[in-house]
Amino acid sequence: MAALVEPLGLERDVSRAVELLERLQRSGELPPQKLQALQRVLQSRFCSAIREVYEQLYDTLDITGSAEIRAHATAKATVAAFTASEGHAHPRVVELPKTDEGLGFNIMGGKEQNSPIYISRVIPGGVADRHGGLKRGDQLLSVNGVVSGGLKQVWDPAVAVPG
């Protein structure tokens, strides 16, 4: 028997979560201030914007694999989209000197995860932090001219490492 694929229904899920929070508030089992704060976040315009971007990316990204893999890759792309919207809007070349301490950033994604490669962390005080050209959520398009995992977005940076 084939499994049915349910359409993405995050709005319904958020509504259900708010309903459950209201029940918890009435039960008195948990501090009402924290429950109310979480409820406000879930009902905020910001949460709605995140949900809308996630749903749009979920429907448009070319991701094969299980629903879990697709959801995970979409979540990463959503974070990257919001991070990119805060700063640089166009691909750029960032040159970092190669040192014994490394380049000063961590990455996530890649072929194994069926996802573009993103900067997951810029290490405070590291080469990338001192340079200032990279930020969390940037996508690596190429390193030393080698394309990294397929161009999926056009607004993310390229990184060049001399030497």
Automatic annotation (TrEMBL):
Membrane disposition: Peripheral membrane protein
Stored Pfam families: L27, PDZ
Superkingdom, natural source: Eukaryota
Annotated localization: Basolateral cell membrane; Cell junction, Tight junction; Postsynaptic density membrane
Entry's Gene Ontology BP terms: exocytosis; protein transport
Coiled coil: none
Protein name: Protein lin-7 homolog
Lineage: Eukaryota, Metazoa, Chordata, Craniata, Vertebrata
